[in-house]
Amino acid sequence: MTTYGIDLGTTYSCIAYVDETGRAVVAKNAVGEETTPSVVYFESGQSVVVGRAAKNSAMLNPDLVVELIKRQIGQGDARREFHGESHAPESISALILRELARNAEEDTGEPVKDVVITVPAYFGVLERDATRKAGQIAGLNVLDVLAEPVAAALHYEALTEDAGVRHLLVYDLGGGTFDTTVIRLDGGDVQVVCTDGDHHLGGADWDSKIIDYLLNGFTDQHSDLDPGGDEQFVQDLAISAEQLKKELSSTQSRRHNMRFDGSVVQLELTRDGLEELTSELLERTMEITERTIATARDKGVTRFDDVLLVGGMTRTPAVARTLKERFGLDARLHDPDLAVAKGAALFALVQRVKIGMDGEDGPGSGETAQDVADQLGISVEQVETMAAKRVATVVPRAFGLKVVDSKDPVFTTDPDRARELVAHLLTANTELPADTGPQTFYTVTDNQNSVRLEVWEQAGSVASDELAHNTHIGDGMLTDLPLRPAGAPFEVTFFMNPTGLLKVHGREAGSGREVRFEIQIGGLEEAEVREATSAVARYEVSG
Fold first, then answer.
1. Is 9 in contact with 67 (CB distance < 8 Å)?
2. Following DSSP, what letter does each residue of 22-91 receive, concatenated?
3. pLDDT (tens digit per residue) in 24-33
4. What's the topology of domain 399-497+501-518?
5. Which of 95, 143, 490, 514 has the fewest CB atoms below 10 angstroms from its CB?
6. Whole-angstrom distance, CA of residue 507 vs CA of residue 98
Protein backbone atom coordinates (compact mmCIF):
# COMPACT_ATOMS: atom_id res chain seq x y z
CA MET A 1 0.00 0.00 0.00
CA THR A 2 3.09 2.23 0.01
CA THR A 3 2.91 5.29 -2.24
CA TYR A 4 5.95 6.97 -3.73
CA GLY A 5 7.12 10.41 -4.77
CA ILE A 6 9.39 10.64 -7.81
CA ASP A 7 11.58 13.59 -8.71
CA LEU A 8 12.07 12.94 -12.42
CA GLY A 9 14.96 15.35 -12.94
CA THR A 10 16.73 16.57 -16.03
CA THR A 11 20.15 15.39 -14.85
CA TYR A 12 19.40 13.37 -11.69
CA SER A 13 16.26 11.62 -10.40
CA CYS A 14 15.23 10.01 -7.13
CA ILE A 15 12.32 8.22 -5.50
CA ALA A 16 11.05 8.53 -1.93
CA TYR A 17 8.36 7.12 0.36
CA VAL A 18 6.99 7.72 3.84
CA ASP A 19 8.23 5.12 6.33
CA GLU A 20 6.42 3.68 9.36
CA THR A 21 7.52 6.63 11.52
CA GLY A 22 5.86 9.14 9.18
CA ARG A 23 9.22 10.37 7.86
CA ALA A 24 9.92 10.80 4.16
CA VAL A 25 12.99 8.80 3.13
CA VAL A 26 14.75 8.29 -0.20
CA ALA A 27 15.19 4.79 -1.60
CA LYS A 28 18.80 4.24 -2.63
CA ASN A 29 19.74 2.78 -5.98
CA ALA A 30 21.73 -0.38 -6.67
CA VAL A 31 25.08 1.34 -6.03
CA GLY A 32 23.92 2.91 -2.77
CA GLU A 33 23.32 6.43 -4.09
CA GLU A 34 20.25 8.51 -3.26
CA THR A 35 20.09 10.10 -6.70
CA THR A 36 20.34 8.38 -10.07
CA PRO A 37 21.64 10.10 -13.22
CA SER A 38 18.78 10.59 -15.68
CA VAL A 39 20.78 8.91 -18.42
CA VAL A 40 19.72 5.96 -20.59
CA TYR A 41 22.12 3.72 -22.53
CA PHE A 42 20.47 1.55 -25.20
CA GLU A 43 22.84 -1.38 -24.84
CA SER A 44 20.94 -3.59 -27.30
CA GLY A 45 17.48 -4.08 -28.71
CA GLN A 46 16.54 -6.00 -25.57
CA SER A 47 18.37 -4.25 -22.74
CA VAL A 48 18.99 -0.72 -21.48
CA VAL A 49 21.16 0.65 -18.69
CA VAL A 50 20.00 3.60 -16.59
CA GLY A 51 22.00 5.76 -14.23
CA ARG A 52 25.70 5.95 -13.36
CA ALA A 53 26.71 3.06 -15.62
CA ALA A 54 24.81 4.65 -18.52
CA LYS A 55 26.53 7.98 -17.89
CA ASN A 56 29.91 6.25 -18.01
CA SER A 57 28.93 4.48 -21.23
CA ALA A 58 28.50 7.85 -22.90
CA MET A 59 32.27 7.99 -23.33
CA LEU A 60 32.37 4.80 -25.38
CA ASN A 61 28.98 4.78 -27.13
CA PRO A 62 27.71 8.38 -27.25
CA ASP A 63 25.29 7.61 -30.10
CA LEU A 64 23.45 5.09 -27.91
CA VAL A 65 23.16 7.31 -24.82
CA VAL A 66 20.39 9.82 -24.05
CA GLU A 67 20.81 12.66 -21.58
CA LEU A 68 18.68 15.73 -20.72
CA ILE A 69 15.57 14.08 -22.19
CA LYS A 70 13.34 16.06 -19.83
CA ARG A 71 14.03 19.16 -21.91
CA GLN A 72 12.28 17.48 -24.85
CA ILE A 73 9.35 15.81 -23.12
CA GLY A 74 6.06 16.67 -24.79
CA GLN A 75 7.76 17.46 -28.12
CA GLY A 76 6.35 15.19 -30.78
CA ASP A 77 9.26 15.85 -33.16
CA ALA A 78 11.96 14.75 -30.70
CA ARG A 79 11.93 11.02 -31.33
CA ARG A 80 15.17 9.03 -31.22
CA GLU A 81 15.97 5.69 -32.87
CA PHE A 82 18.09 2.94 -31.33
CA HIS A 83 18.61 -0.57 -32.72
CA GLY A 84 15.77 -0.04 -35.20
CA GLU A 85 13.25 1.05 -32.54
CA SER A 86 11.85 4.60 -32.40
CA HIS A 87 11.42 6.21 -28.99
CA ALA A 88 9.56 9.35 -27.94
CA PRO A 89 10.88 11.35 -24.96
CA GLU A 90 8.02 9.86 -22.93
CA SER A 91 9.18 6.28 -23.46
CA ILE A 92 12.81 7.19 -22.70
CA SER A 93 11.63 8.89 -19.50
CA ALA A 94 9.60 5.78 -18.72
CA LEU A 95 12.80 3.71 -18.73
CA ILE A 96 14.24 6.03 -16.07
CA LEU A 97 11.04 5.66 -14.06
CA ARG A 98 11.22 1.87 -14.37
CA GLU A 99 14.74 1.84 -12.94
CA LEU A 100 13.71 4.11 -10.06
CA ALA A 101 10.77 1.81 -9.30
CA ARG A 102 13.03 -1.24 -9.44
CA ASN A 103 15.45 0.38 -6.99
CA ALA A 104 12.62 1.22 -4.60
CA GLU A 105 11.23 -2.31 -4.78
CA GLU A 106 14.63 -3.73 -3.89
CA ASP A 107 15.04 -1.18 -1.10
CA THR A 108 11.60 -1.66 0.50
CA GLY A 109 10.66 -5.17 -0.56
CA GLU A 110 7.30 -3.88 -1.83
CA PRO A 111 6.08 -3.36 -5.40
CA VAL A 112 5.91 0.21 -6.68
CA LYS A 113 2.59 1.14 -8.26
CA ASP A 114 1.01 4.37 -6.96
CA VAL A 115 3.23 7.41 -7.53
CA VAL A 116 3.28 11.18 -7.72
CA ILE A 117 5.76 12.57 -10.25
CA THR A 118 7.07 16.10 -9.97
CA VAL A 119 7.54 18.62 -12.77
CA PRO A 120 8.97 22.15 -12.92
CA ALA A 121 6.39 24.70 -11.85
CA TYR A 122 6.70 26.37 -15.22
CA PHE A 123 5.88 23.23 -17.22
CA GLY A 124 2.84 23.75 -19.39
CA VAL A 125 -0.05 21.48 -20.33
CA LEU A 126 1.94 19.55 -22.96
CA GLU A 127 4.87 18.73 -20.67
CA ARG A 128 2.68 17.81 -17.70
CA ASP A 129 0.54 15.49 -19.77
CA ALA A 130 3.66 13.94 -21.32
CA THR A 131 5.11 13.34 -17.85
CA ARG A 132 1.94 11.59 -16.76
CA LYS A 133 2.06 9.43 -19.89
CA ALA A 134 5.70 8.55 -19.18
CA GLY A 135 4.56 7.16 -15.84
CA GLN A 136 1.77 5.24 -17.54
CA ILE A 137 4.22 3.77 -20.08
CA ALA A 138 6.44 2.68 -17.18
CA GLY A 139 3.50 0.69 -15.78
CA LEU A 140 2.85 3.08 -12.89
CA ASN A 141 -0.41 4.51 -11.59
CA VAL A 142 0.25 8.25 -11.55
CA LEU A 143 -1.89 9.70 -8.76
CA ASP A 144 -0.92 13.24 -9.70
CA VAL A 145 1.71 15.43 -11.30
CA LEU A 146 3.01 17.94 -8.74
CA ALA A 147 5.00 21.14 -9.19
CA GLU A 148 8.52 20.77 -7.79
CA PRO A 149 8.46 23.88 -5.55
CA VAL A 150 5.16 22.76 -4.04
CA ALA A 151 6.81 19.45 -3.19
CA ALA A 152 9.74 21.31 -1.63
CA ALA A 153 7.30 23.42 0.41
CA LEU A 154 5.54 20.28 1.68
CA HIS A 155 8.88 18.91 2.83
CA TYR A 156 9.64 22.25 4.51
CA GLU A 157 6.24 22.24 6.21
CA ALA A 158 6.86 18.72 7.54
CA LEU A 159 10.12 19.88 9.15
CA THR A 160 8.92 23.13 10.74
CA GLU A 161 6.86 23.64 13.85
CA ASP A 162 5.87 27.20 12.99
CA ALA A 163 2.15 27.87 12.90
CA GLY A 164 0.17 30.58 11.18
CA VAL A 165 0.58 32.05 7.73
CA ARG A 166 4.04 31.87 6.20
CA HIS A 167 5.24 32.94 2.78
CA LEU A 168 8.11 31.14 1.07
CA LEU A 169 10.14 32.00 -1.98
CA VAL A 170 11.44 28.80 -3.58
CA TYR A 171 14.43 29.30 -5.88
CA ASP A 172 14.76 25.98 -7.73
CA LEU A 173 17.80 25.65 -9.98
CA GLY A 174 18.26 22.06 -11.09
CA GLY A 175 20.25 20.35 -13.77
CA GLY A 176 18.09 21.49 -16.66
CA THR A 177 15.26 23.72 -15.43
CA PHE A 178 14.80 26.83 -13.30
CA ASP A 179 11.75 28.12 -11.43
CA THR A 180 11.01 30.71 -8.79
CA THR A 181 7.75 30.27 -6.92
CA VAL A 182 6.05 32.09 -4.07
CA ILE A 183 4.05 29.81 -1.78
CA ARG A 184 1.69 30.55 1.12
CA LEU A 185 1.48 28.06 3.98
CA ASP A 186 -1.60 28.48 6.13
CA GLY A 187 -2.73 25.94 8.70
CA GLY A 188 -1.47 23.01 6.68
CA ASP A 189 -2.78 24.34 3.37
CA VAL A 190 -0.26 25.00 0.60
CA GLN A 191 -1.13 27.64 -1.97
CA VAL A 192 0.99 28.82 -4.90
CA VAL A 193 0.82 32.59 -5.17
CA CYS A 194 2.78 32.94 -8.40
CA THR A 195 5.50 31.24 -10.40
CA ASP A 196 7.87 31.97 -13.25
CA GLY A 197 10.76 30.14 -14.85
CA ASP A 198 12.66 28.75 -17.80
CA HIS A 199 12.72 25.01 -18.47
CA HIS A 200 15.79 25.35 -20.69
CA LEU A 201 18.06 26.80 -18.02
CA GLY A 202 19.98 24.76 -15.47
CA GLY A 203 23.22 23.16 -14.36
CA ALA A 204 23.77 21.59 -17.78
CA ASP A 205 24.25 25.10 -19.16
CA TRP A 206 26.94 25.80 -16.54
CA ASP A 207 28.62 22.56 -17.63
CA SER A 208 28.55 23.71 -21.27
CA LYS A 209 30.34 26.94 -20.35
CA ILE A 210 33.08 24.96 -18.59
CA ILE A 211 33.41 22.57 -21.53
CA ASP A 212 33.88 25.53 -23.90
CA TYR A 213 36.47 27.03 -21.54
CA LEU A 214 38.46 23.81 -21.39
CA LEU A 215 38.19 23.14 -25.12
CA ASN A 216 39.23 26.68 -26.03
CA GLY A 217 42.09 26.49 -23.55
CA PHE A 218 43.38 23.35 -25.26
CA THR A 219 43.13 24.73 -28.80
CA ASP A 220 44.77 28.02 -27.73
CA GLN A 221 47.89 26.02 -26.94
CA HIS A 222 47.56 23.55 -29.84
CA SER A 223 45.84 25.33 -32.70
CA ASP A 224 46.81 22.58 -35.11
CA LEU A 225 44.64 20.01 -33.26
CA ASP A 226 40.85 19.62 -33.26
CA PRO A 227 39.85 17.71 -30.11
CA GLY A 228 36.30 19.10 -30.39
CA GLY A 229 35.66 16.67 -33.22
CA ASP A 230 36.51 13.67 -31.06
CA GLU A 231 33.38 12.40 -29.30
CA GLN A 232 35.24 10.57 -26.55
CA PHE A 233 37.37 13.63 -25.74
CA VAL A 234 34.25 15.81 -25.51
CA GLN A 235 32.49 13.23 -23.32
CA ASP A 236 35.51 13.21 -21.01
CA LEU A 237 35.28 16.98 -20.83
CA ALA A 238 31.56 16.78 -19.98
CA ILE A 239 32.23 14.51 -17.00
CA SER A 240 35.16 16.67 -15.89
CA ALA A 241 33.12 19.88 -16.25
CA GLU A 242 30.40 18.63 -13.93
CA GLN A 243 33.01 17.54 -11.38
CA LEU A 244 34.86 20.87 -11.56
CA LYS A 245 31.60 22.75 -11.08
CA LYS A 246 30.78 20.75 -7.95
CA GLU A 247 34.28 21.09 -6.49
CA LEU A 248 34.35 24.85 -7.01
CA SER A 249 31.31 25.17 -4.75
CA SER A 250 33.58 24.32 -1.81
CA THR A 251 37.08 25.27 -3.07
CA GLN A 252 38.58 28.35 -4.67
CA SER A 253 40.40 26.74 -7.60
CA ARG A 254 41.01 23.47 -9.40
CA ARG A 255 43.45 22.27 -12.05
CA HIS A 256 42.46 19.97 -14.89
CA ASN A 257 44.71 17.93 -17.19
CA MET A 258 43.69 17.17 -20.77
CA ARG A 259 45.43 14.79 -23.17
CA PHE A 260 44.73 14.51 -26.89
CA ASP A 261 46.79 13.10 -29.75
CA GLY A 262 49.93 12.97 -27.58
CA SER A 263 49.60 16.58 -26.37
CA VAL A 264 48.87 17.50 -22.75
CA VAL A 265 47.40 20.75 -21.46
CA GLN A 266 46.82 21.73 -17.84
CA LEU A 267 44.34 24.49 -17.07
CA GLU A 268 43.29 26.12 -13.84
CA LEU A 269 39.73 27.23 -13.21
CA THR A 270 38.96 29.40 -10.19
CA ARG A 271 35.61 29.99 -8.53
CA ASP A 272 35.80 33.65 -9.58
CA GLY A 273 36.59 32.54 -13.12
CA LEU A 274 33.62 30.18 -13.19
CA GLU A 275 31.33 32.92 -11.90
CA GLU A 276 32.55 35.22 -14.66
CA LEU A 277 32.05 32.51 -17.31
CA THR A 278 28.49 31.87 -16.17
CA SER A 279 27.42 35.36 -15.08
CA GLU A 280 24.91 35.62 -17.93
CA LEU A 281 23.21 32.39 -16.81
CA LEU A 282 22.94 33.51 -13.20
CA GLU A 283 21.65 36.89 -14.35
CA ARG A 284 18.83 35.14 -16.25
CA THR A 285 17.72 33.47 -13.01
CA MET A 286 17.81 36.81 -11.20
CA GLU A 287 15.66 38.48 -13.86
CA ILE A 288 13.07 35.74 -13.44
CA THR A 289 13.29 36.04 -9.65
CA GLU A 290 12.74 39.79 -9.92
CA ARG A 291 9.61 39.24 -12.02
CA THR A 292 8.31 36.70 -9.50
CA ILE A 293 8.86 39.03 -6.56
CA ALA A 294 7.09 41.85 -8.42
CA THR A 295 4.11 39.60 -9.25
CA ALA A 296 3.92 38.47 -5.61
CA ARG A 297 3.98 42.09 -4.48
CA ASP A 298 1.04 42.85 -6.77
CA LYS A 299 -0.78 39.97 -5.06
CA GLY A 300 -0.11 41.39 -1.59
CA VAL A 301 2.99 39.41 -0.58
CA THR A 302 5.61 41.97 0.44
CA ARG A 303 7.96 39.84 2.57
CA PHE A 304 9.13 36.25 2.82
CA ASP A 305 9.44 34.21 5.99
CA ASP A 306 11.93 31.93 4.31
CA VAL A 307 13.80 31.65 1.02
CA LEU A 308 14.47 28.04 0.08
CA LEU A 309 17.23 26.98 -2.30
CA VAL A 310 16.32 23.74 -4.08
CA GLY A 311 18.21 21.88 -6.80
CA GLY A 312 21.86 20.88 -6.90
CA MET A 313 23.01 24.05 -8.67
CA THR A 314 21.99 26.18 -5.66
CA ARG A 315 25.06 24.86 -3.85
CA THR A 316 27.19 27.29 -5.82
CA PRO A 317 27.91 30.20 -3.44
CA ALA A 318 27.12 32.82 -6.08
CA VAL A 319 23.41 32.01 -5.87
CA ALA A 320 22.86 32.86 -2.19
CA ARG A 321 25.29 35.79 -2.36
CA THR A 322 23.58 37.36 -5.37
CA LEU A 323 20.09 36.93 -3.90
CA LYS A 324 21.35 38.80 -0.82
CA GLU A 325 23.07 41.55 -2.79
CA ARG A 326 20.27 42.01 -5.32
CA PHE A 327 17.13 41.59 -3.21
CA GLY A 328 18.28 41.54 0.40
CA LEU A 329 17.10 37.94 0.74
CA ASP A 330 18.70 35.54 3.20
CA ALA A 331 18.42 32.20 1.42
CA ARG A 332 19.22 28.78 2.80
CA LEU A 333 19.79 25.38 1.26
CA HIS A 334 16.78 23.14 1.78
CA ASP A 335 17.93 19.54 1.23
CA PRO A 336 18.61 20.64 -2.37
CA ASP A 337 18.93 17.22 -3.99
CA LEU A 338 16.20 15.36 -2.09
CA ALA A 339 13.56 17.85 -0.89
CA VAL A 340 11.42 17.51 -4.02
CA ALA A 341 11.22 13.70 -3.92
CA LYS A 342 10.53 13.73 -0.18
CA GLY A 343 7.78 16.33 -0.55
CA ALA A 344 6.28 14.34 -3.41
CA ALA A 345 6.22 11.25 -1.18
CA LEU A 346 4.30 13.18 1.47
CA PHE A 347 1.87 14.44 -1.17
CA ALA A 348 1.46 10.93 -2.60
CA LEU A 349 0.38 9.74 0.82
CA VAL A 350 -2.11 12.62 1.06
CA GLN A 351 -3.52 11.69 -2.34
CA ARG A 352 -3.78 8.03 -1.36
CA VAL A 353 -5.70 9.02 1.77
CA LYS A 354 -8.08 11.23 -0.17
CA ILE A 355 -8.72 8.53 -2.76
CA GLY A 356 -9.34 6.02 0.00
CA MET A 357 -11.71 8.37 1.82
CA ASP A 358 -13.61 9.54 -1.27
CA GLY A 359 -13.71 6.40 -3.40
CA GLU A 360 -14.20 6.35 -7.13
CA ASP A 361 -17.81 7.53 -6.90
CA GLY A 362 -17.10 10.67 -4.90
CA PRO A 363 -16.85 11.73 -1.24
CA GLY A 364 -18.29 9.32 1.25
CA SER A 365 -18.25 6.32 -1.08
CA GLY A 366 -14.80 5.07 -0.11
CA GLU A 367 -13.23 3.69 3.02
CA THR A 368 -13.57 5.10 6.51
CA ALA A 369 -10.71 6.97 8.19
CA GLN A 370 -10.12 3.88 10.31
CA ASP A 371 -9.91 1.65 7.21
CA VAL A 372 -7.32 3.91 5.60
CA ALA A 373 -5.42 4.26 8.88
CA ASP A 374 -5.25 0.48 9.26
CA GLN A 375 -4.04 -0.02 5.69
CA LEU A 376 -1.38 2.67 5.91
CA GLY A 377 -0.29 1.98 9.45
CA ILE A 378 -0.95 5.51 10.70
CA SER A 379 -3.38 6.99 13.22
CA VAL A 380 -6.93 8.08 12.42
CA GLU A 381 -5.95 11.61 13.43
CA GLN A 382 -3.16 11.60 10.83
CA VAL A 383 -5.59 10.36 8.19
CA GLU A 384 -8.10 13.09 8.97
CA THR A 385 -5.39 15.77 8.93
CA MET A 386 -4.14 14.57 5.54
CA ALA A 387 -7.63 14.35 4.09
CA ALA A 388 -8.23 17.98 5.08
CA LYS A 389 -5.00 19.25 3.54
CA ARG A 390 -5.45 21.53 0.56
CA VAL A 391 -2.80 22.10 -2.10
CA ALA A 392 -3.70 24.88 -4.51
CA THR A 393 -1.63 25.97 -7.48
CA VAL A 394 -1.86 28.49 -10.30
CA VAL A 395 -2.05 28.63 -14.08
CA PRO A 396 1.62 28.26 -15.06
CA ARG A 397 1.34 30.16 -18.34
CA ALA A 398 -1.15 32.22 -20.31
CA PHE A 399 -3.71 30.50 -22.57
CA GLY A 400 -5.69 32.05 -25.38
CA LEU A 401 -7.32 31.86 -28.80
CA LYS A 402 -5.84 32.62 -32.18
CA VAL A 403 -7.70 35.63 -33.62
CA VAL A 404 -7.42 38.01 -36.56
CA ASP A 405 -6.09 41.47 -35.71
CA SER A 406 -8.91 43.88 -36.52
CA LYS A 407 -6.45 46.81 -36.12
CA ASP A 408 -4.34 45.62 -39.04
CA PRO A 409 -4.99 48.02 -42.00
CA VAL A 410 -5.40 45.00 -44.28
CA PHE A 411 -8.30 43.71 -42.16
CA THR A 412 -10.96 46.01 -43.65
CA THR A 413 -10.27 44.97 -47.25
CA ASP A 414 -8.97 41.40 -46.93
CA PRO A 415 -9.36 39.90 -43.43
CA ASP A 416 -7.88 36.58 -44.60
CA ARG A 417 -4.51 38.34 -45.07
CA ALA A 418 -4.62 40.28 -41.81
CA ARG A 419 -2.19 39.60 -39.00
CA GLU A 420 -3.06 36.70 -36.71
CA LEU A 421 -2.32 36.88 -33.00
CA VAL A 422 -3.17 35.20 -29.69
CA ALA A 423 -5.75 36.81 -27.41
CA HIS A 424 -5.03 35.45 -23.94
CA LEU A 425 -8.10 34.63 -21.87
CA LEU A 426 -6.33 32.93 -18.96
CA THR A 427 -3.32 34.80 -17.60
CA ALA A 428 -0.35 33.23 -15.85
CA ASN A 429 -0.53 32.95 -12.06
CA THR A 430 -4.34 32.87 -11.91
CA GLU A 431 -5.32 30.63 -9.01
CA LEU A 432 -6.75 27.25 -9.94
CA PRO A 433 -9.48 26.30 -10.53
CA ALA A 434 -9.89 29.21 -12.94
CA ASP A 435 -12.95 30.27 -14.91
CA THR A 436 -12.70 33.16 -17.37
CA GLY A 437 -16.45 33.52 -17.80
CA PRO A 438 -17.86 34.23 -21.31
CA GLN A 439 -15.52 36.35 -23.44
CA THR A 440 -16.92 37.91 -26.62
CA PHE A 441 -15.35 37.44 -30.05
CA TYR A 442 -16.62 38.21 -33.56
CA THR A 443 -16.81 36.57 -36.97
CA VAL A 444 -14.56 38.11 -39.63
CA THR A 445 -16.41 37.46 -42.90
CA ASP A 446 -19.99 37.75 -44.11
CA ASN A 447 -22.12 34.60 -43.85
CA GLN A 448 -19.46 32.81 -41.82
CA ASN A 449 -21.14 29.59 -40.67
CA SER A 450 -18.32 28.13 -38.55
CA VAL A 451 -15.46 29.20 -36.32
CA ARG A 452 -12.35 27.19 -35.51
CA LEU A 453 -11.41 27.74 -31.88
CA GLU A 454 -7.63 27.33 -31.86
CA VAL A 455 -6.21 27.22 -28.34
CA TRP A 456 -2.63 28.40 -27.81
CA GLU A 457 -0.35 28.32 -24.78
CA GLN A 458 2.34 30.85 -23.89
CA ALA A 459 5.73 29.42 -24.87
CA GLY A 460 8.12 32.23 -23.95
CA SER A 461 9.06 33.51 -20.52
CA VAL A 462 6.73 36.52 -20.88
CA ALA A 463 3.23 36.46 -22.36
CA SER A 464 3.10 37.75 -25.92
CA ASP A 465 0.37 37.90 -28.55
CA GLU A 466 2.79 36.87 -31.32
CA LEU A 467 2.00 33.39 -32.69
CA ALA A 468 5.71 32.54 -32.69
CA HIS A 469 5.82 33.09 -28.92
CA ASN A 470 2.99 30.62 -28.27
CA THR A 471 2.32 26.91 -28.86
CA HIS A 472 -0.81 25.50 -30.52
CA ILE A 473 -2.20 22.86 -28.13
CA GLY A 474 -5.69 22.02 -29.41
CA ASP A 475 -8.83 23.17 -31.18
CA GLY A 476 -12.56 22.66 -31.67
CA MET A 477 -15.22 23.78 -34.16
CA LEU A 478 -18.26 25.95 -33.50
CA THR A 479 -20.46 25.02 -36.48
CA ASP A 480 -23.85 25.68 -38.13
CA LEU A 481 -23.85 29.36 -37.19
CA PRO A 482 -26.66 31.53 -38.58
CA LEU A 483 -25.64 33.40 -41.75
CA ARG A 484 -24.98 36.97 -40.65
CA PRO A 485 -22.78 39.91 -41.66
CA ALA A 486 -19.16 39.98 -40.49
CA GLY A 487 -18.81 41.05 -36.87
CA ALA A 488 -21.48 38.71 -35.49
CA PRO A 489 -20.65 37.96 -31.82
CA PHE A 490 -20.03 34.62 -30.16
CA GLU A 491 -18.70 33.73 -26.72
CA VAL A 492 -15.82 31.57 -25.51
CA THR A 493 -15.15 30.45 -21.95
CA PHE A 494 -12.00 28.79 -20.61
CA PHE A 495 -12.08 26.67 -17.46
CA MET A 496 -8.98 25.04 -15.98
CA ASN A 497 -9.34 22.55 -13.14
CA PRO A 498 -6.83 22.11 -10.27
CA THR A 499 -4.84 19.50 -12.19
CA GLY A 500 -4.36 21.77 -15.22
CA LEU A 501 -6.99 20.23 -17.53
CA LEU A 502 -8.33 22.97 -19.79
CA LYS A 503 -11.97 22.91 -20.89
CA VAL A 504 -13.29 25.21 -23.61
CA HIS A 505 -16.90 26.25 -24.21
CA GLY A 506 -17.88 28.15 -27.36
CA ARG A 507 -21.43 29.49 -27.80
CA GLU A 508 -23.41 31.57 -30.28
CA ALA A 509 -26.14 33.13 -28.14
CA GLY A 510 -28.69 33.90 -30.85
CA SER A 511 -28.96 30.36 -32.20
CA GLY A 512 -27.88 28.49 -29.09
CA ARG A 513 -25.23 26.65 -31.11
CA GLU A 514 -22.35 25.59 -28.88
CA VAL A 515 -19.26 23.41 -28.64
CA ARG A 516 -17.54 22.02 -25.58
CA PHE A 517 -14.20 20.27 -25.66
CA GLU A 518 -11.27 19.40 -23.50
CA ILE A 519 -7.88 20.13 -24.93
CA GLN A 520 -6.64 17.10 -26.76
CA ILE A 521 -2.95 17.27 -25.99
CA GLY A 522 -0.72 17.17 -29.03
CA GLY A 523 1.62 14.53 -27.61
CA LEU A 524 1.32 10.76 -27.85
CA GLU A 525 -2.06 9.36 -28.81
CA GLU A 526 -3.50 6.58 -26.65
CA ALA A 527 -2.59 3.97 -29.26
CA GLU A 528 1.00 5.25 -29.23
CA VAL A 529 1.01 5.09 -25.42
CA ARG A 530 -0.10 1.46 -25.54
CA GLU A 531 2.54 0.65 -28.14
CA ALA A 532 5.25 2.41 -26.10
CA THR A 533 4.12 0.61 -22.94
CA SER A 534 4.58 -2.75 -24.65
CA ALA A 535 7.95 -1.72 -26.09
CA VAL A 536 9.31 -0.44 -22.77
CA ALA A 537 8.05 -3.53 -20.93
CA ARG A 538 10.13 -5.75 -23.24
CA TYR A 539 13.39 -4.17 -22.16
CA GLU A 540 15.55 -5.57 -19.42
CA VAL A 541 16.45 -2.48 -17.39
CA SER A 542 19.49 -2.36 -15.13
CA GLY A 543 21.50 0.28 -13.31
1. no
2. S-EEEEP-TTS-SSEE--EE--SSSEEEESHHHHHHTTT-GGGEE--GGGGTT-TT--EEETTEEE-HHH
3. 999 999 899 9
4. Substrate Binding Domain Of DNAk; Chain A, domain 1 (2.60.34)
5. 514
6. 45
